Amino acid sequence: MRAHGRTRTDRCGFFEDVYALVRRIPRGKVATYGQIARMLGAPRSARVVGWALHGNPPGSRVPWHRVVQQRGSLSPSVCPANPGRQRRLLTREGVGFLLDGRIDMFAHQWHAAATPATRRRS
Predict the structure, then answer these.
(1) In sequence order, what are the residues at sequence separation of 6 or more whose Cβ sits closer than 8 angstroms to the Cβ of residue 93?
(2) What does the alpha-carbon distance between residue 88 and residue 31 come to, in Å, rounded to a whole number?
(3) Domain count, the chain
(4) Which run of H or E residues covers position 10?
């Protein structure tokens, strides 16, 4: 099966790369799904980043709540059983929100040091 040019086993490796990169986002900062995809050298795979975070293993230490939609919107489907959880977690970390409910991306977007894509090569 192929999705975005990757086989199922390739996606497992991509998911692990997503988890590793998301763990680097510091408290009080956020990144977008597209930003994570670009940093991994797969600029058209923002949705796959979302799939990876949705499939984040229970009990993992991946701060999934620090990844948001472009322009700072929170995804309504990120935690359907507990609406508002992502916002509460981010607020606890000091992330500020604008009056329209979006994150203040100017103040809180993570800008990692410029490094080559962290994607593993086989």
Answers:
(1) 27, 28, 66
(2) 17
(3) 1
(4) helix 8-22
Q: What is the pTM assigned to this prediction?
A: 0.83
Q: What is the pLDDT of residue 95?
A: 98
- Distances in whole angstroms, Cα of residue 26 to Cα of each of 61, 67, 122: 13, 11, 29
Model pLDDT, residue 119: 44
Tell me the average confidence (pLDDT) per consecutive run of 10 residues in the chain, 122 residues long: 48 89 97 97 95 88 95 85 89 97 97 61 42
Q: How many CA atoms lie within 13 A of 82 on its CB side?
A: 7
Give the torsion through C-alpha atoms of 74, 79, 83, 88, to 10 deg: -70
Is residue 122 in some structural domain?
A: no
3-state helix, strand, coil in the chain (%, to 5): 40, 10, 50
CATH classification at residue 104: 1.10.10.10
CB atoms within 10 A of CB 102: 14
Compute how many other C-beta atoms are within 10 angstroms of the C-beta atom of residue 44. Answer: 11
